Amino acid sequence: MIRNNRKTLLLTSLLTISPILAGLILWNQLPEKFAIHFSNNNGADGWGSKFFGVFGLPLILLALQLFVSLATLADPKRKNINTRIGKMVFWIIPVLSICVNIFLYSYNLGYDLDIGLWVSLMIGFLFIVIGNYLHKVKQNFTIGIRLPWTLTSEENWNRTHRMASWIFILGGIIMIINGFVQSYWLLFSILMVLFVIPCIYSFILYKKGI
């Protein structure tokens, strides 16, 4: 399975670390104190070295990309993974790596950039995309809401993911709206709903014998 996806794995891995090349080109223009974390007023409140900003973040994302991709390819139930969803798994992290580093480089070069807005738009769009495909995910061990009762009951799995699909789409829309409001309370509430409500719903189905 890995052999059949070597080209895709290589391409996505190279794209994940491609911001390093941009960082080397911009090296002399980037500050030694590199902003990597931001508060809700778009002010930087966390810094690292320029070396970490250019090399560290892309390499961390590369490690995550390889872990997620290889785990998906090694899944005993990988045949249940929809082809489009499988492709999405390969491409999410490379796209995030490029977008996140564009934001970071722009900010550290002194451009007036609303980080909170762009990050919320990016994450909101990602949630909508995931929600659009979540109901198509069949039982597997790497993608989806993997709970003991969803993995042992196909009906529980299917119902949980159909409900979660709408939750993710709605959460993505609210996340996009929150980009213009930038409320930490609303952000926390969205994340709680996205990951807690489907689990509770799935457990209720389990208690009902589904």
From TrEMBL:
This protein's UniProt keywords: Membrane, Transmembrane, Transmembrane helix
Organism: Blautia ammoniilytica
InterPro entries noted in UniProt: DUF1648, SdpI, SdpI/YhfL
Transmembrane found in the keyword field: yes
This protein's name: SdpI family protein
Occurrences of domain DUF1648 (ranges): 14-62
Transmembrane segments: 9-27, 47-68, 89-109, 115-134, 163-181, 187-206
Pfam families named among the record's database cross-references: DUF1648, SdpI
Keyword Transmembrane helix: yes
Coiled coil: none
